Amino acid sequence: MQSPKIRIASYNIRKARGLDQQRRPERILHVINDLCADIVVLQEADMRMGRRKPALPRALIETHTDFDLVEISANGISIGWHGNAVLVRKGLHVRDRQRLDLPGLEPRGAVRLTLDIGAGDNGARTGLTVLAAHLGLRRRDRRAQLASLIETATADPHTVIAGDFNEWSSCSGLEPLTPHFEIHSPGLSFHARRPVAALDRFALSRGLELRDGGVEQGPLARRASDHLPIWSDIAIGATTC
């Protein structure tokens, strides 16, 4: 039996404000649809101030995509938690969800989901834990936030951390991950007009295998936000005959 496979994408949508300074949520959703992903984690999915209204209206998600919004909001208005939101392909079962507070100078949070992926010959489904995060601007905070996420994920055999890691360096700043996770940067994702940094990443625990990955660089993605979306095809567990 082959290992279950899934495509996960991460996208900092900058509150749906494009490089033309226009807020166009339908444009963001068009880019998301083109990713052909099963799970999409979003950063900056809610407005920052006041009641934190969603940058992507629920009605547009329902009418313009084949995704379900994972309800994670604490106030009944936002679609995310500290701007982190998750869309899952219709039919995917979300077994568990949790809001996480992260340490640091500025308020930051993450979302933890457990999903049932694939099915074996005996009908059993494989669990996949997704931690969606937008890490802080200071490296010392990012290190503490990663340590907190790892502590949350230690009991889960198949875990992917996905999001905007906000780390410009390719060799420093992500040390808390290295004993437990393999870090993958599909490519340069920031700035969308002229990409120079791989701020957006995936970290895969043991038992997960990266099969493919990339950065969406189409003309619409280059206008819709200041980040380009990234994606990875992941196999869960070893392949057996």
Keywords for this structure?
241 residues, 6-stranded mixed β-sheet, alpha+beta, single chain, 12 strands, Deoxyribonuclease I, Chain A
Q: What does this protein structure show overall?
A:
The protein is an alpha+beta fold. It has a single domain (5-236), classed as Deoxyribonuclease I, Chain A (4-Layer Sandwich). The chain is 15% helix and 34% strand. It contains 4 helices and 12 strands, in the order E-H-E-H-E-E-E-E-E-H-E-E-E-E-H-E. The protein has helices spanning 25-34, 58-64, 139-153, 221-224; strands spanning 5-12, 39-43, 67-69, 85-89, 93-102, 108-117, 126-134, 159-164, 181-184, 200-205, 208-215, 230-236. Strands 3-4-2-1-12-11 form a 6-stranded mixed β-sheet, with helices on one face. Strand 1 (5-12), helix 1 (25-34) and strand 2 (39-43) form a beta-alpha-beta unit. The longest helix is centred in the middle third of the chain and has 15 residues, at 139-153. It is globular and about 40 Å long. The N and C termini lie close together (6 Å). The relative contact order is 0.19. The mean pLDDT is 93.
User: So what's the overall shape?
Assistant: globular
Number of helices: 4
Question: What count of domains describes the coordinates?
Answer: 1
**End-to-end C-alpha gap:** 6 Å
Q: Please, what is the average pLDDT?
A: 93
CATH superfamily: Endonuclease/exonuclease/phosphatase
**Count of DSSP strands:** 12
Structural class: alpha+beta
Instruction: Output the strand order for the largest sheet.
Output: 3-4-2-1-12-11
CATH topology: Deoxyribonuclease I, Chain A
Biggest β-sheet strands, sense, barrel? 6 strands, mixed
Strand content: 25-35%
CATH architecture descriptor: 4-Layer Sandwich
Determine the oligomeric state from the structure.
single chain
The helix fraction, in percent, is: 10-25%
Radius of gyration: 17 Å
Specify the CATH class.
Alpha Beta
Series of H and E elements = EHEHEEEEEHEEEEHE
Task: Give unreliable regions as ranges.
Answer: none
